[in-house]
Amino acid sequence: MLSHFRLFLASLLALATIGAFALLSGVPKTAVAAPTTVTLTAVADTYVSTASPNSNFGRATSLAVSQNTYRVLLRFDVSLPADSSITNASLRIYSRTSVNGSLIVHPASNAWEETTVTSANQPAWQTAELARTGVLRSSQYASATLPTSAVTTSGSVSFGLNTTAGVQGSLASRETTQRPQLVITYDSTTTPTPTPTVTPPPPPPPPAISTVLPVVETVGFSGSGDISDDSAIWVDQANPANSVVIADKKATSGGGIGVFGMDGKLIQFRGDGMIGNVDVRTSFPLAGQSIVLVGANNRTNNTLVLYSLDTTSRTLAPVAARSIATFAPNVGSCLYHSRISGKFYAFVTPNGAGSIQQFELVDNGAGRVDAVLVRTLSMSSITESCVADDELGHLYVGQEDVAIWKYGAEPGAGATRVSVDTVAAGRLRADIEGMSIAYGANGSGKLFVSSQGDSTIAVYERAGSNPFIKKFRVGSNGTIDAVTGTDGIDVTIHNAGPQFEQGLLVVHDETNTGGTTSNLKYVPLSAVLG
Description:
By secondary structure, the protein is mostly beta strands.
Protein backbone atom coordinates (compact mmCIF):
# COMPACT_ATOMS: atom_id res chain seq x y z
CA MET A 1 0.00 0.00 0.00
CA LEU A 2 2.85 2.39 0.86
CA SER A 3 4.49 1.84 -2.52
CA HIS A 4 1.17 2.66 -4.26
CA PHE A 5 0.90 5.87 -2.21
CA ARG A 6 4.45 6.87 -3.19
CA LEU A 7 3.62 6.25 -6.84
CA PHE A 8 0.53 8.47 -6.51
CA LEU A 9 2.62 11.30 -4.98
CA ALA A 10 5.20 11.00 -7.77
CA SER A 11 2.45 11.30 -10.37
CA LEU A 12 1.05 14.43 -8.71
CA LEU A 13 4.53 15.97 -8.65
CA ALA A 14 5.03 15.25 -12.36
CA LEU A 15 1.66 16.83 -13.22
CA ALA A 16 2.48 19.89 -11.15
CA THR A 17 5.82 20.27 -12.89
CA ILE A 18 4.19 20.06 -16.32
CA GLY A 19 1.57 22.65 -15.29
CA ALA A 20 4.21 25.03 -14.00
CA PHE A 21 6.15 24.71 -17.25
CA ALA A 22 2.97 25.44 -19.21
CA LEU A 23 2.40 28.62 -17.21
CA LEU A 24 5.97 29.78 -17.85
CA SER A 25 5.91 28.95 -21.53
CA GLY A 26 4.62 31.28 -24.21
CA VAL A 27 3.27 30.43 -27.64
CA PRO A 28 5.94 28.62 -29.69
CA LYS A 29 7.60 31.05 -32.05
CA THR A 30 8.84 30.48 -35.57
CA ALA A 31 12.62 30.35 -35.85
CA VAL A 32 14.74 30.55 -38.97
CA ALA A 33 17.11 27.66 -39.55
CA ALA A 34 20.66 28.12 -40.81
CA PRO A 35 20.80 29.01 -44.53
CA THR A 36 21.09 26.04 -46.90
CA THR A 37 22.73 26.14 -50.33
CA VAL A 38 21.85 23.69 -53.10
CA THR A 39 23.37 23.37 -56.57
CA LEU A 40 20.97 22.17 -59.28
CA THR A 41 22.05 21.08 -62.75
CA ALA A 42 20.02 21.76 -65.87
CA VAL A 43 17.37 19.17 -66.75
CA ALA A 44 17.10 20.50 -70.31
CA ASP A 45 19.22 22.81 -72.47
CA THR A 46 19.65 23.68 -76.12
CA TYR A 47 20.29 26.57 -78.45
CA VAL A 48 18.30 27.86 -81.40
CA SER A 49 19.62 29.46 -84.58
CA THR A 50 17.96 32.00 -86.85
CA ALA A 51 20.36 30.79 -89.56
CA SER A 52 18.81 27.28 -89.29
CA PRO A 53 15.27 28.12 -88.13
CA ASN A 54 13.91 24.55 -88.35
CA SER A 55 16.89 22.72 -86.83
CA ASN A 56 16.96 21.29 -83.30
CA PHE A 57 20.22 21.18 -81.31
CA GLY A 58 18.95 19.49 -78.15
CA ARG A 59 21.73 16.89 -78.02
CA ALA A 60 24.61 19.27 -78.69
CA THR A 61 27.53 19.21 -76.26
CA SER A 62 28.32 22.87 -77.02
CA LEU A 63 25.75 25.66 -76.91
CA ALA A 64 26.36 28.46 -79.41
CA VAL A 65 25.33 31.90 -78.14
CA SER A 66 25.39 35.42 -79.57
CA GLN A 67 23.26 38.54 -79.33
CA ASN A 68 20.75 37.64 -82.06
CA THR A 69 21.67 34.61 -84.24
CA TYR A 70 22.20 32.02 -81.48
CA ARG A 71 20.16 31.93 -78.29
CA VAL A 72 20.35 29.40 -75.46
CA LEU A 73 17.46 27.92 -73.47
CA LEU A 74 17.97 26.33 -70.02
CA ARG A 75 15.53 24.62 -67.67
CA PHE A 76 15.93 23.61 -64.02
CA ASP A 77 13.59 21.71 -61.71
CA VAL A 78 13.43 23.28 -58.24
CA SER A 79 12.05 21.50 -55.18
CA LEU A 80 12.75 23.26 -51.89
CA PRO A 81 11.07 22.66 -48.51
CA ALA A 82 7.54 24.06 -48.32
CA ASP A 83 8.49 26.64 -45.68
CA SER A 84 11.61 27.89 -47.46
CA SER A 85 12.49 31.43 -48.51
CA ILE A 86 15.11 32.02 -51.19
CA THR A 87 17.80 34.52 -50.13
CA ASN A 88 20.29 34.23 -53.01
CA ALA A 89 20.30 32.67 -56.47
CA SER A 90 22.94 32.55 -59.20
CA LEU A 91 23.30 30.95 -62.61
CA ARG A 92 26.68 29.36 -63.49
CA ILE A 93 27.61 28.55 -67.10
CA TYR A 94 30.87 26.96 -68.29
CA SER A 95 32.50 28.84 -71.17
CA ARG A 96 34.60 27.01 -73.77
CA THR A 97 35.99 30.23 -75.24
CA SER A 98 37.29 33.62 -74.14
CA VAL A 99 35.39 36.55 -75.61
CA ASN A 100 35.29 40.25 -74.80
CA GLY A 101 31.65 40.17 -73.75
CA SER A 102 29.14 38.86 -71.23
CA LEU A 103 26.12 36.59 -71.11
CA ILE A 104 22.76 38.27 -70.58
CA VAL A 105 20.16 36.25 -68.68
CA HIS A 106 16.45 36.64 -69.52
CA PRO A 107 13.31 34.98 -68.14
CA ALA A 108 11.84 32.30 -70.42
CA SER A 109 8.66 30.32 -70.79
CA ASN A 110 8.71 26.64 -69.86
CA ALA A 111 6.74 25.83 -73.05
CA TRP A 112 9.61 24.16 -74.95
CA GLU A 113 11.09 20.69 -75.23
CA GLU A 114 14.79 20.00 -75.54
CA THR A 115 14.50 17.60 -78.49
CA THR A 116 11.95 19.51 -80.56
CA VAL A 117 12.39 23.25 -80.01
CA THR A 118 13.74 25.29 -82.93
CA SER A 119 14.13 28.95 -83.74
CA ALA A 120 10.86 28.75 -85.67
CA ASN A 121 8.73 27.22 -82.89
CA GLN A 122 10.45 28.57 -79.75
CA PRO A 123 8.28 30.44 -77.21
CA ALA A 124 8.26 34.21 -77.51
CA TRP A 125 11.66 35.62 -76.53
CA GLN A 126 11.45 37.68 -73.33
CA THR A 127 13.65 40.76 -73.57
CA ALA A 128 13.59 41.68 -69.87
CA GLU A 129 17.10 41.43 -68.41
CA LEU A 130 17.53 39.51 -65.16
CA ALA A 131 21.32 39.59 -64.83
CA ARG A 132 24.68 39.62 -66.59
CA THR A 133 27.83 37.62 -66.09
CA GLY A 134 31.32 38.99 -66.15
CA VAL A 135 33.49 38.70 -69.25
CA LEU A 136 33.60 35.09 -70.55
CA ARG A 137 36.88 33.24 -70.01
CA SER A 138 37.81 29.90 -71.58
CA SER A 139 37.50 26.81 -69.34
CA GLN A 140 35.87 28.80 -66.54
CA TYR A 141 32.38 29.10 -65.13
CA ALA A 142 30.75 32.51 -65.61
CA SER A 143 28.31 33.50 -62.87
CA ALA A 144 25.26 35.78 -62.90
CA THR A 145 23.50 36.81 -59.68
CA LEU A 146 19.73 36.51 -60.21
CA PRO A 147 16.89 38.36 -58.51
CA THR A 148 15.38 35.96 -56.00
CA SER A 149 11.99 36.64 -57.57
CA ALA A 150 13.23 34.95 -60.76
CA VAL A 151 13.40 31.54 -59.08
CA THR A 152 10.50 29.50 -57.73
CA THR A 153 10.72 27.32 -54.61
CA SER A 154 8.89 24.51 -56.38
CA GLY A 155 8.51 23.71 -60.06
CA SER A 156 10.36 24.35 -63.31
CA VAL A 157 12.16 27.58 -64.16
CA SER A 158 13.60 28.44 -67.58
CA PHE A 159 16.09 31.06 -68.71
CA GLY A 160 17.10 32.42 -72.09
CA LEU A 161 20.69 33.51 -72.76
CA ASN A 162 22.22 35.79 -75.33
CA THR A 163 25.33 38.00 -75.27
CA THR A 164 26.38 41.60 -75.40
CA ALA A 165 26.78 43.05 -78.88
CA GLY A 166 29.41 41.83 -81.33
CA VAL A 167 30.51 38.59 -79.66
CA GLN A 168 29.77 34.89 -80.05
CA GLY A 169 30.43 32.33 -77.33
CA SER A 170 30.43 28.58 -76.87
CA LEU A 171 29.03 27.10 -73.66
CA ALA A 172 29.14 23.57 -72.24
CA SER A 173 25.78 21.79 -72.24
CA ARG A 174 24.35 19.29 -69.75
CA GLU A 175 25.62 16.51 -72.01
CA THR A 176 29.12 17.25 -70.63
CA THR A 177 30.62 17.13 -67.13
CA GLN A 178 30.57 20.97 -66.91
CA ARG A 179 26.78 21.25 -66.76
CA PRO A 180 24.90 24.54 -66.36
CA GLN A 181 24.17 25.11 -62.67
CA LEU A 182 21.55 27.00 -60.64
CA VAL A 183 22.86 27.73 -57.13
CA ILE A 184 20.17 28.61 -54.58
CA THR A 185 20.58 29.65 -50.95
CA TYR A 186 17.43 29.48 -48.84
CA ASP A 187 16.17 29.74 -45.27
CA SER A 188 13.54 27.40 -43.87
CA THR A 189 11.46 27.84 -40.73
CA THR A 190 11.01 25.37 -37.89
CA THR A 191 9.00 25.41 -34.68
CA PRO A 192 11.30 25.12 -31.66
CA THR A 193 10.38 24.01 -28.17
CA PRO A 194 8.40 26.58 -26.16
CA THR A 195 10.42 29.25 -24.40
CA PRO A 196 9.47 31.26 -21.33
CA THR A 197 7.47 34.39 -22.06
CA VAL A 198 9.44 37.56 -21.35
CA THR A 199 7.66 40.88 -21.01
CA PRO A 200 9.66 43.48 -22.96
CA PRO A 201 10.66 46.66 -21.15
CA PRO A 202 8.67 49.80 -21.98
CA PRO A 203 10.06 51.86 -24.84
CA PRO A 204 12.36 54.74 -23.89
CA PRO A 205 10.87 58.23 -23.79
CA PRO A 206 11.10 60.14 -27.08
CA PRO A 207 14.40 61.99 -27.43
CA ALA A 208 14.67 65.74 -27.09
CA ILE A 209 14.67 67.59 -30.42
CA SER A 210 16.93 70.59 -30.98
CA THR A 211 16.67 73.14 -33.81
CA VAL A 212 19.31 74.28 -36.30
CA LEU A 213 18.97 77.09 -38.83
CA PRO A 214 19.51 77.13 -42.61
CA VAL A 215 21.44 79.99 -44.19
CA VAL A 216 20.75 79.34 -47.92
CA GLU A 217 17.88 77.78 -49.85
CA THR A 218 17.75 76.75 -53.50
CA VAL A 219 15.49 78.32 -56.07
CA GLY A 220 12.63 75.96 -56.83
CA PHE A 221 12.46 73.92 -60.00
CA SER A 222 9.77 74.98 -62.44
CA GLY A 223 6.36 73.42 -61.86
CA SER A 224 4.42 72.81 -58.68
CA GLY A 225 4.28 70.44 -55.73
CA ASP A 226 6.86 68.18 -54.09
CA ILE A 227 9.19 67.61 -57.03
CA SER A 228 12.57 68.07 -55.31
CA ASP A 229 13.81 65.10 -53.34
CA ASP A 230 17.39 63.89 -53.02
CA SER A 231 20.75 65.65 -53.34
CA ALA A 232 24.50 64.99 -53.48
CA ILE A 233 27.29 67.42 -52.61
CA TRP A 234 30.49 67.78 -54.64
CA VAL A 235 33.20 69.79 -52.88
CA ASP A 236 35.86 71.62 -54.88
CA GLN A 237 38.68 71.33 -52.38
CA ALA A 238 40.90 73.66 -54.43
CA ASN A 239 38.19 76.34 -54.54
CA PRO A 240 35.46 75.53 -51.97
CA ALA A 241 33.17 78.33 -53.14
CA ASN A 242 33.00 76.49 -56.49
CA SER A 243 31.30 73.48 -54.83
CA VAL A 244 27.89 72.34 -56.06
CA VAL A 245 24.77 70.48 -54.96
CA ILE A 246 23.40 68.03 -57.53
CA ALA A 247 19.68 67.37 -57.07
CA ASP A 248 16.86 65.44 -58.67
CA LYS A 249 13.56 66.68 -60.02
CA LYS A 250 11.22 63.74 -59.49
CA ALA A 251 8.31 65.19 -61.48
CA THR A 252 6.49 62.68 -63.69
CA SER A 253 6.41 65.33 -66.43
CA GLY A 254 9.46 67.52 -67.00
CA GLY A 255 11.60 65.63 -64.51
CA GLY A 256 15.38 65.56 -64.57
CA ILE A 257 18.54 66.49 -62.70
CA GLY A 258 19.96 69.90 -61.77
CA VAL A 259 23.19 71.46 -60.51
CA PHE A 260 22.99 74.24 -57.91
CA GLY A 261 25.72 76.59 -56.71
CA MET A 262 26.49 77.37 -53.09
CA ASP A 263 24.28 80.46 -53.44
CA GLY A 264 21.28 78.21 -54.18
CA LYS A 265 21.01 79.30 -57.81
CA LEU A 266 20.50 76.80 -60.63
CA ILE A 267 23.57 76.33 -62.85
CA GLN A 268 22.29 73.56 -65.13
CA PHE A 269 19.19 71.45 -65.62
CA ARG A 270 18.85 68.31 -67.73
CA GLY A 271 15.35 67.04 -68.54
CA ASP A 272 16.25 63.35 -68.46
CA GLY A 273 13.11 61.92 -66.87
CA MET A 274 11.85 61.22 -63.37
CA ILE A 275 15.22 61.05 -61.59
CA GLY A 276 15.16 59.45 -58.13
CA ASN A 277 18.08 59.47 -55.69
CA VAL A 278 21.45 61.02 -56.56
CA ASP A 279 24.99 60.18 -55.39
CA VAL A 280 28.53 61.20 -56.35
CA ARG A 281 32.03 59.66 -56.20
CA THR A 282 35.34 61.21 -57.23
CA SER A 283 38.32 59.53 -58.91
CA PHE A 284 36.44 57.12 -61.15
CA PRO A 285 38.93 55.89 -63.80
CA LEU A 286 37.56 56.36 -67.32
CA ALA A 287 39.52 56.37 -70.58
CA GLY A 288 42.78 57.05 -68.77
CA GLN A 289 41.39 59.97 -66.79
CA SER A 290 39.87 60.45 -63.35
CA ILE A 291 36.32 61.78 -63.41
CA VAL A 292 33.69 62.86 -60.90
CA LEU A 293 30.99 60.22 -61.36
CA VAL A 294 27.34 61.00 -60.61
CA GLY A 295 24.83 58.16 -60.38
CA ALA A 296 21.04 58.17 -60.10
CA ASN A 297 18.03 55.99 -60.80
CA ASN A 298 15.52 56.97 -63.46
CA ARG A 299 11.96 56.09 -62.45
CA THR A 300 10.55 56.91 -65.90
CA ASN A 301 12.19 53.93 -67.62
CA ASN A 302 13.58 51.99 -64.61
CA THR A 303 17.22 52.43 -65.47
CA LEU A 304 20.48 53.39 -63.79
CA VAL A 305 21.77 56.68 -65.20
CA LEU A 306 25.40 57.86 -64.97
CA TYR A 307 26.97 61.28 -65.56
CA SER A 308 30.37 62.93 -65.48
CA LEU A 309 30.60 66.29 -63.70
CA ASP A 310 32.76 68.84 -65.54
CA THR A 311 34.42 70.55 -62.57
CA THR A 312 35.18 73.70 -64.56
CA SER A 313 31.78 74.40 -66.10
CA ARG A 314 30.01 72.57 -63.23
CA THR A 315 27.73 70.77 -65.67
CA LEU A 316 26.74 67.14 -66.17
CA ALA A 317 27.19 64.98 -69.27
CA PRO A 318 25.88 61.38 -69.66
CA VAL A 319 28.54 58.63 -69.64
CA ALA A 320 26.46 55.41 -69.47
CA ALA A 321 27.46 52.91 -72.14
CA ARG A 322 23.85 51.85 -72.72
CA SER A 323 20.38 51.90 -71.19
CA ILE A 324 21.08 49.98 -67.96
CA ALA A 325 17.87 48.21 -66.93
CA THR A 326 17.12 47.77 -63.21
CA PHE A 327 14.47 46.13 -61.08
CA ALA A 328 11.10 47.62 -62.00
CA PRO A 329 9.81 49.76 -60.49
CA ASN A 330 12.91 51.34 -58.96
CA VAL A 331 12.78 54.18 -56.46
CA GLY A 332 16.25 55.06 -55.12
CA SER A 333 19.99 54.55 -55.53
CA CYS A 334 23.44 55.20 -54.07
CA LEU A 335 27.12 54.63 -54.95
CA TYR A 336 29.97 52.74 -53.26
CA HIS A 337 33.75 52.87 -53.77
CA SER A 338 35.39 49.81 -52.25
CA ARG A 339 38.49 50.41 -50.16
CA ILE A 340 39.29 46.68 -50.47
CA SER A 341 39.25 46.25 -54.26
CA GLY A 342 39.17 49.83 -55.53
CA LYS A 343 36.07 48.97 -57.57
CA PHE A 344 33.01 51.21 -57.88
CA TYR A 345 29.42 50.01 -57.43
CA ALA A 346 25.87 51.32 -57.67
CA PHE A 347 22.92 50.11 -55.59
CA VAL A 348 19.34 50.51 -56.86
CA THR A 349 16.38 50.11 -54.50
CA PRO A 350 12.83 48.82 -55.18
CA ASN A 351 9.56 50.75 -55.06
CA GLY A 352 7.72 48.02 -53.14
CA ALA A 353 8.51 44.38 -52.45
CA GLY A 354 11.43 43.36 -54.64
CA SER A 355 15.22 43.35 -54.84
CA ILE A 356 17.97 45.80 -54.07
CA GLN A 357 20.43 45.38 -56.95
CA GLN A 358 24.18 45.91 -56.73
CA PHE A 359 25.96 46.73 -60.00
CA GLU A 360 29.71 46.89 -60.57
CA LEU A 361 30.57 49.99 -62.63
CA VAL A 362 33.29 49.49 -65.24
CA ASP A 363 35.05 51.32 -68.06
CA ASN A 364 33.81 49.62 -71.24
CA GLY A 365 37.00 50.49 -73.11
CA ALA A 366 35.28 53.06 -75.29
CA GLY A 367 35.13 55.97 -72.87
CA ARG A 368 31.78 54.99 -71.37
CA VAL A 369 30.65 53.41 -68.10
CA ASP A 370 28.88 50.05 -68.12
CA ALA A 371 27.31 48.11 -65.25
CA VAL A 372 27.27 44.40 -64.36
CA LEU A 373 24.79 43.03 -61.82
CA VAL A 374 26.72 41.28 -59.03
CA ARG A 375 24.25 40.86 -56.13
CA THR A 376 20.60 41.17 -55.13
CA LEU A 377 19.03 41.61 -51.67
CA SER A 378 15.35 40.81 -51.15
CA MET A 379 13.12 43.42 -49.49
CA SER A 380 9.51 42.95 -48.42
CA SER A 381 8.42 46.58 -48.87
CA ILE A 382 9.48 49.94 -50.34
CA THR A 383 13.09 50.77 -49.55
CA GLU A 384 14.08 54.08 -51.11
CA SER A 385 17.14 55.53 -49.46
CA CYS A 386 20.58 54.00 -49.08
CA VAL A 387 24.13 55.11 -48.33
CA ALA A 388 27.41 53.19 -48.44
CA ASP A 389 30.36 53.70 -46.11
CA ASP A 390 33.37 53.52 -48.44
CA GLU A 391 35.93 53.16 -45.63
CA LEU A 392 34.20 50.67 -43.33
CA GLY A 393 32.45 48.69 -46.09
CA HIS A 394 28.87 49.03 -44.80
CA LEU A 395 25.64 49.53 -46.75
CA TYR A 396 22.74 51.22 -44.93
CA VAL A 397 19.24 51.02 -46.39
CA GLY A 398 15.99 52.51 -45.15
CA GLN A 399 12.97 50.21 -45.34
CA GLU A 400 10.56 53.11 -45.05
CA ASP A 401 8.03 51.90 -42.47
CA VAL A 402 10.22 49.27 -40.79
CA ALA A 403 13.89 49.85 -40.00
CA ILE A 404 17.37 51.01 -40.91
CA TRP A 405 19.29 47.90 -42.04
CA LYS A 406 23.07 47.53 -42.20
CA TYR A 407 24.59 45.07 -44.70
CA GLY A 408 28.11 44.44 -45.91
CA ALA A 409 28.68 46.57 -49.02
CA GLU A 410 31.03 44.14 -50.78
CA PRO A 411 29.33 42.00 -53.45
CA GLY A 412 30.32 38.80 -51.66
CA ALA A 413 28.86 39.89 -48.31
CA GLY A 414 25.61 37.99 -48.82
CA ALA A 415 22.26 38.90 -47.26
CA THR A 416 23.30 39.06 -43.60
CA ARG A 417 22.05 42.26 -41.97
CA VAL A 418 21.52 43.92 -38.61
CA SER A 419 19.00 46.53 -37.52
CA VAL A 420 20.44 49.92 -36.61
CA ASP A 421 17.08 51.33 -35.47
CA THR A 422 13.39 50.70 -36.06
CA VAL A 423 10.24 52.75 -36.44
CA ALA A 424 8.80 50.86 -33.46
CA ALA A 425 11.62 52.06 -31.16
CA GLY A 426 10.26 55.61 -31.11
CA ARG A 427 13.21 57.63 -32.48
CA LEU A 428 12.08 57.41 -36.13
CA ARG A 429 8.65 58.19 -37.48
CA ALA A 430 7.77 56.68 -40.86
CA ASP A 431 8.81 57.19 -43.49
CA ILE A 432 12.52 56.54 -43.03
CA GLU A 433 13.97 58.55 -45.91
CA GLY A 434 17.32 60.18 -46.75
CA MET A 435 20.66 58.91 -45.40
CA SER A 436 24.18 60.31 -45.43
CA ILE A 437 27.51 59.87 -43.65
CA ALA A 438 29.75 62.54 -42.11
CA TYR A 439 33.16 60.84 -42.15
CA GLY A 440 35.57 61.24 -39.25
CA ALA A 441 39.13 60.09 -38.57
CA ASN A 442 39.84 56.43 -37.77
CA GLY A 443 36.29 55.21 -38.37
CA SER A 444 34.61 57.97 -36.35
CA GLY A 445 31.86 60.18 -37.70
CA LYS A 446 28.08 60.26 -37.85
CA LEU A 447 25.24 58.57 -39.75
CA PHE A 448 22.38 61.00 -40.59
CA VAL A 449 18.87 59.63 -41.23
CA SER A 450 15.76 61.57 -42.26
CA SER A 451 12.63 60.87 -40.17
CA GLN A 452 9.96 62.21 -42.52
CA GLY A 453 6.97 61.59 -40.26
CA ASP A 454 8.05 64.25 -37.77
CA SER A 455 10.26 66.35 -40.10
CA THR A 456 13.44 65.64 -38.12
CA ILE A 457 16.87 64.13 -38.68
CA ALA A 458 18.26 61.42 -36.41
CA VAL A 459 22.01 61.12 -35.82
CA TYR A 460 23.87 57.90 -34.99
CA GLU A 461 27.50 57.03 -34.40
CA ARG A 462 29.19 55.76 -37.54
CA ALA A 463 31.32 53.28 -35.60
CA GLY A 464 30.39 50.03 -33.90
CA SER A 465 26.70 49.22 -33.56
CA ASN A 466 25.68 52.79 -34.52
CA PRO A 467 24.33 53.98 -31.13
CA PHE A 468 21.76 56.79 -31.34
CA ILE A 469 23.03 60.28 -30.47
CA LYS A 470 20.31 62.88 -30.99
CA LYS A 471 17.56 64.34 -33.16
CA PHE A 472 17.14 67.82 -34.59
CA ARG A 473 14.92 69.75 -36.96
CA VAL A 474 15.69 72.57 -39.40
CA GLY A 475 13.86 75.73 -38.37
CA SER A 476 13.14 79.03 -40.12
CA ASN A 477 15.72 81.80 -40.46
CA GLY A 478 14.47 85.15 -41.70
CA THR A 479 13.00 84.69 -45.17
CA ILE A 480 14.03 81.02 -45.25
CA ASP A 481 11.18 78.84 -44.00
CA ALA A 482 11.44 75.76 -41.78
CA VAL A 483 11.80 72.26 -43.22
CA THR A 484 8.68 70.07 -43.32
CA GLY A 485 8.26 66.53 -44.64
CA THR A 486 12.02 66.12 -44.97
CA ASP A 487 13.08 63.50 -47.52
CA GLY A 488 16.54 63.38 -49.09
CA ILE A 489 19.64 64.67 -47.26
CA ASP A 490 23.39 64.85 -47.86
CA VAL A 491 26.30 65.92 -45.67
CA THR A 492 30.02 66.65 -46.00
CA ILE A 493 32.62 67.56 -43.38
CA HIS A 494 34.75 69.43 -45.96
CA ASN A 495 34.93 73.18 -46.50
CA ALA A 496 32.16 74.01 -48.98
CA GLY A 497 32.78 77.75 -49.15
CA PRO A 498 31.74 80.83 -47.16
CA GLN A 499 29.32 79.99 -44.31
CA PHE A 500 30.14 76.28 -44.71
CA GLU A 501 33.83 76.21 -43.80
CA GLN A 502 33.24 73.40 -41.26
CA GLY A 503 31.02 71.37 -43.57
CA LEU A 504 27.52 71.39 -45.07
CA LEU A 505 24.20 69.63 -44.56
CA VAL A 506 21.61 69.79 -47.38
CA VAL A 507 17.98 68.97 -46.49
CA HIS A 508 14.89 68.57 -48.69
CA ASP A 509 11.86 70.69 -47.73
CA GLU A 510 8.55 69.31 -48.98
CA THR A 511 6.46 72.44 -48.32
CA ASN A 512 8.52 75.45 -49.30
CA THR A 513 6.62 78.44 -47.96
CA GLY A 514 6.39 81.18 -50.58
CA GLY A 515 7.36 78.86 -53.44
CA THR A 516 5.36 76.71 -55.82
CA THR A 517 7.63 73.67 -55.46
CA SER A 518 9.65 71.93 -52.79
CA ASN A 519 13.32 72.91 -52.50
CA LEU A 520 16.57 72.35 -50.58
CA LYS A 521 17.93 74.07 -47.46
CA TYR A 522 21.68 74.50 -46.76
CA VAL A 523 22.72 74.22 -43.10
CA PRO A 524 26.25 74.82 -41.72
CA LEU A 525 27.41 71.48 -40.32
CA SER A 526 28.96 73.30 -37.35
CA ALA A 527 25.42 74.16 -36.21
CA VAL A 528 24.60 70.44 -36.05
CA LEU A 529 27.80 69.00 -34.58
CA GLY A 530 28.94 72.00 -32.56
